[in-house]
Amino acid sequence: MIASNPMNEKFNFELDNSMLSKPLSKKLFVKCQLIQSYSTDEVISKISALKQGTFDKVLKRIFETVF
After folding, report:
1. What is the pLDDT of residues 25-56, one digit of tens each?
2. In angstroms, rounded to a whole number, what is the distance separating the alpha carbons of residues 20 and 30?
3. How are strands ordered across the β-sheet holding 12-15?
């Protein structure tokens, strides 16, 4: 889940425009504790998408904070 509210800093991964396929106007955070299994076809990219290197960093952060 990606949100603009930085609640619960321990489980956040902050994004900046260099990590996204299209720049956005506000700061966004990946909520690493809110995870679920989805196939690629189920993920909808309405505005922007994570670059592959950033996606790998998010996965690492999820494993560090949750598991």
Report:
1. 888 888 776 666 656 565 556 677 778 888 88
2. 12
3. 2-3, 28-31, 12-15
